[in-house]
Every structure is written in structure tokens, then in C-alpha cells.
Amino acid sequence: MDLPTLLLVAFATLVMIILLAVVAQRLLDVRFGPLRTFLAVVLAWGMAQPMLEPILGSLGLLNGAEPPLGAALGVLLLVVMCMVLIPMVLLVLAEALVPPGSVPGPLELLRSVRGRVSRARRYSQITRIAIKHGLGPYLRGRGERLEDRSGQVRLARSLRAALDDGGVTFVKLGQVLSTRRDLLPAEFVEELGRLQDQVAPAPWEQIEPVLTRELGGPVEDVFAEFGRTPLAAASIGQVHLARLHTGESVVVKVQRPGIAVVVAKDLDIVRRLAATLEARTRWGRSLGLRDLAEGFAAAIREELDFRVEAANMAAVAAFDGACVTYPVPFGALCTERVLVMQRLRGKPVTAATREQGPQLARDLLDCLLRQILVEGVFHADPHPGNLMLLDDGTLGLLDFGSVGRLDASIRSALQRFLLAMNRQDPLGVTDALLEVVPRPEDIDEAALERALGQFMAKHLAPGMDSVQLFTDLFKIVSVYGLSIPPEVAAVFRALATLEGTLVRLSPGFNLIGEARAFAGRYLAEQVGPATVKESVTHELAALLPMLRRLPRRVERIASAAEHGRFAMNVRLLADDRDRRFVTGLLHQVLLTVLGATAGVMAVMLLGTEGGPLVLGSTSLFQLIGYNLLVIASILVLRVLALIFRRTRD
């Protein structure tokens, strides 16, 4: 075969393959990936000859005899439909056995291999750390169940040591877990709370290029003075003192060089590890590790972008801080890796005297409750390290990398929850709680109401302290299978952290009494004359247009009823989505009926004896039966392809 003929054959083959691919996709009415379709058609092209030879042989076409014109057209139709049927069968089988997305594409596979290679060393390091601290069996889901407290304490210590050795991401993971009393036993919460995030500072030679690149020029051009020795250092960044050319003293937070790459790789490992543990272990499924890891990853990514922290500081500082001061960011100098903010002068809050403690605790509680219930923007991590005792004796709140936001509906439900707690109303507390969290379908509301009543009787009675208050509340939420939304979980997490901070500021602090006093003050504000007048004015302004139209509409309805013309017009399937659903369902039913009918007719014709012979011993009835059988197969494949695709969607 000469070259032009070979090229012509190759071109004709390519055209046939493309034509088969287009026809197969159109008949199945499902869009497949180009690579999957091409492979199915090429494979079908190679399988066509060995599969069609037995069929043509049974029809007597391989002995050199020439069939009549009508029979030849019937055979040609049969061959064409078989050529289309083979790739359709392959595509449907692939859709059922290997759905799209279950096997990565070439580019995704290449990226996956490169990612696996880059993660291999870190996986090995983490595994060695886990085995070193005796956590290997628990990672495989084979760890022993520890019922006694001493065993749980030992395991908690091993976990804390392993997270501490794992580096910045795992240290912060442990710090987040230490606030989740709704997920972990008290022994783990207490032990993980000891994790420290203090590390050796990065040398100035590494920090200066970051500042120069982020600020767009040398440090001397931006600052009149800049302290090269850091005031404090953590795993993500470190803090330096500086002075602007305008004279203001500022604090400059600089992100460590290269930390973003390390954290991104560790977060990928944390997500994969959480997914594996949730799939293979019972305790992983009970904790919901996959969702926990996703929330943690989102929080860490925000913490790596100092522009988010600057925006959080500005949002919180926009409201009146009362007895708590917030540092003001210098927005023009804040970038992704550099944060410049006002310097607050003072000392650690733990240095407060016994006389100062109760008032500072009251100020902090009032500030956070007002942020949560009134303003909707709140500091989500109020531990002692993020607080300062300023020189004027007031509190300073630092580190706004973790800030929660609540919409008006959640704030309203939390307000009702707190007010119902103040009244010790179990029914009101239950209703408010079920507005805050998604309501499960099978929840026993009466039992939940009794549990909350017992909770209030235990913690809200006169003379009772707040020890284990949030721990017991978290237990009730967990026992009744209530799924807490992330923004509400941030509230509970902040309040649980606040509880420990208040006790540290003022041992014996009456959290219950102060919170109830805040609820009383807030209720007084809500029912004050000015507030009531404003609420009534707004409601009347919204109702007035409707009230104006109401008499005319009532008169029309009454007149129509009086004269016997009152009627109701209801349009079924008015929504276009409903019409599309019903239409698709009818199409599937119709295709199924047609396919079944064609199949039954094919079987009947193939089993019918007699009839005119058109191809050797093959009668016309049998030839029509073969064609109907292929048509039935095509219709059934179309229905199956739609079912597999829609089931997965």
C-alpha cells in the first residue's frame, strides 16, 4: 500500500472514529470526557471485526453470496447499529464501574505523583514521631480502649508530645483541640492546653528581605526606628517594635520566611490523615475528623494572611470597646505577610493583682458577650496570652487572627437562649437552642428539655459555681446528636476559653451571676422606651403599605363570594425545575417501555418459524428481529447511562 492510500485510509478511519463518538454520545444523551469517549471508540473499532464475524457468518454473508438489495440494506443497518452499540456498551460500563473523577486524569495523575513524592518525607517524619510516642496502634485503628483515667492521661500526654514535635501546624491543631470540650475528654483538653507556641526567633537576615519585599522599599524608608531584636516570636511570625516617621510607636508582626509552604504541605497531610482516620476508625467517625480538619485548615489559611487579621481588628474596633482597648491597624502598611498596628503599653494580664482581677474579669466577660450578642463580630480566642493589662489599668485585647461572625438571626436566637437561661425556662432554652443548631428529624424534644432543665438546676441554682458549665452543655449537645454550625461552634469555643481565662484572672469568679446580670441589663435595654418606640415605628412602616391595600382586597373577595364568582386558581408544576424533572422522568419511562417493547418483539420474531428467506437460511422475520434487538439494547443503554449519571449527581 503506497503512502497516499495509507494516509487516505488513516483519514477515513479517524473520521469514522469521530463520527462513532459523536453518534454514541448523542444516543446516550450524556456528556462524557473526550479521552474516555475516544478510548471507548478506538477499543470498539478494534473489537468490531471479531464481534461482527460470527453475526455475519450466521447470516450466511461470509460465503461470497450476494444478498438481495432489501436484505443488504437490512444487514447494513444491523452492522452500523452494532458498530454504534459497542462503544455505547463500553461507555455505560465505564460510567457504572469507573465514574468520572474516581480515576485522575493524566495531568492530575502527574500532579498527584509529584505531590506524593514531596509528601513522602514528611509522612515518614510524622509516622516516626507517632511511633516514637506510642501512637502507632491508634493510627491503625487498633489501639486499646482506655477506660481508666490514668490510661487516658498517658495517651493524652503522648498525643501532646507528638503534636509538639510535629511543628507549627500540629501545635496549632492541638491548641484548637484543647478548646473542643464537646469532642474530647477532659484529660485530653487539659493536656493539650499545655502546648506552647514559643520558638526561637528567625534571624534579622531572614526577616529583613520579607519586610523589604512586602513594604516595597528598605525598612529605613518606612520606619524612623525599627528594633531588630524581636519582642516575641511564635511559629508563624514574630513581633518587632518600631516607630513611624510621624512619631507613633507601633508593633510590626512579620511572617516567617517559607512558613506558608510548610503549613500548606502539613495542612494537606492533616486533611488526608483525618479522612483516613474517619474511614478506618470508630473514634474518628464519632468525632467527625474530616469536617474538623477542613475547619482547622480554613482557620490556619486565614491566620497566614495578615490582611485578614487587619480587617478583623478594624471590624472589632469599629464598635465601642468600653473598658477594653483594641490595637488599631495601619492599613496602608499591612500586607499579606506584614501587619503594622498600634502599640499598647502594658504587661501580661497574669500580672494583675488580686484586687484588680474581679473588675478585669467583669470587663472581659461584658466585652465578649456584647461582641457576640450585640455586635456579631467577636474575638474567638480570648486566652490569657491574647490579653494585656494596660498602664491605665484596663484590658487590651490582642491577636485577631481568629474572629467569629454571626448574622442577625443567630444573634437573636443566642439572645433568647441567654434570656431563657436567666429565667431558668427549660422550654425557652430548648426552643432557642434548636433555632441555633439544625433541628434533627428524630430528636426527642421532651428528653432534651428535661436534660436542659437538670443542667440549669445543677449550674444556675444560688451558690453554684461555673466549673464544668460548658463541658456539661457540650455533653448534652453531643448526646442528642445536635450538629453545631461552625459559627456557633466558634461561639462555644470562645466561651469555653473565656471560662478558663476568667477563673485565672479572678479565682472564684461568679460567671453565672455576671452573665445573668448582663442578660438583665440587655433585656432592660431591649424594652426601654426608646428601643420599643423604634421597633414599633419600623414595624408600622413595613406594615403600612399592606394595611392600605387590605380593605380593597377584602371588599373584592367579599363581592366575588356574594355573586358566586369566588374561585381559586392553582397552577401545578409552575416551577420550571419541576417541569424539567417530570419531563425527564417521563422520557426515561418512555424509553424503557420502547426498549422493552422492541426487545419483546425481537424475541418473538427470532422465535417465529417460516417467513420469506432473504439470506440463506435466515428469514426476513429473523433479520428484523436482529435489528430490533440492537435497537432495544441502544434504548436500554441510554436509560442506564442517565440513571448512573443522575444517581452519582
Annotation keywords:
649 residues; alpha+beta; 5-stranded antiparallel beta sheet; 4-stranded mixed beta sheet; 13 strands; 8% strand
Please give a structural write-up.
By secondary structure, this protein is α+β, with helices and mostly antiparallel strands. Among the domains are: 3-90, no CATH class; 344-526, no CATH class; 576-648. Helices cover 65% and strands 8% of the residues. The chain is built from 24 helices and 13 strands. The radius of gyration is 36 Å and the shape is extended. The relative contact order is 0.07.
Can I get a quick summary?
Residues 194-429 form the ABC1 atypical kinase-like domain. The chain has 649 residues and is an alpha+beta fold.
Please render the helix and strand layout as text:
Layout: H1 3-28, H2 34-58, H3 69-97, H4 106-132, H5 136-139, H6 149-166, H7 168-177, H8 186-192, H9 204-215, H10 219-222, E1 223-226, E2 232-233, E3 237-244, E4 249-255, H11 259-280, H12 282-287, H13 289-304, H14 306-317, E5 324-325, E6 338-342, E7 346-348, H15 357-375, E8 377-379, E9 387-390, E10 395-397, E11 403-405, H16 408-423, H17 426-436, H18 445-459, H19 469-479, H20 486-505, H21 511-526, H22 529-562, H23 576-606, E12 613-615, E13 618-619, H24 620-648
Parallel strand pairs: 5-10
Antiparallel strand pairs: 1-3, 2-3, 3-4, 4-6, 7-9, 8-11, 9-10, 12-13
